[in-house]
Amino acid sequence: MSTKDFIGYMLIMILLIMVCGGLFSLLWNVTMPYIFGLPSIGMGRGIAFYVLIRLLISGISFQLYKGE
Fold first, then answer.
1. Is residue 37 one of the residues assigned to a domain?
2. How confident is the model over 22-44, as pLDDT tens digits?
3. Continuous H helices in 1-68
4. How many structural domains is the chain composed of?
5. How far apart are CA 18 and CA 59, in angstroms?
6. pTM given for the model
7. Which one of 10, 18, 37, 38 has the fewest beta carbons within 10 angstroms of its own beta carbon?
8. Which of 51, 17, 32, 54 has its CA nearest to residue 41?
9. With contact defined as beta carbons under 8 Å apart, do 47 and 21 qualify?
10. Can you tell me the mean pLDDT for 4-25?
11. Which 8-state DSSP code applies to residue 37?
């Protein structure tokens, strides 16, 4: 894998995490304050919750795909 490919993959991963975190915070702010009376959250906390949930559900995997 070249350096350009690696940088491209990392940028896509960062963008994906930001989009999913933003979607998480949007869904949280639409539902949780009205149902349970919880406070609204911002984009940063949404990203943190998204990463935390991903780690708790799928764990950390350091295996790289080796196509045969």
1. yes
2. 999 999 999 999 999 999 999 89
3. 3-35, 43-58
4. 1
5. 19
6. 0.70
7. 37
8. 32
9. yes
10. 90
11. -
- 62, part of any domain: yes
With a cut of 90, say whether residue 11 has pLDDT above it: yes
With beta carbons less than 8 A apart as the criterion, state whether 40 and 29 touch.
yes
pLDDT for residue 61: 62
Instruction: Give me 62's structure tokens.
Output: 């350091």
Residue numbers of the domain that contains 66? 17-68
CA-wise closest residue to 20 among 8, 32, 12: 12
The answer to whether position 5 is within a domain reads: no
Q: How far is CA 43 from the centre of its chain?
A: 11
Give 62 or 38, the one with higher predicted confidence: 38
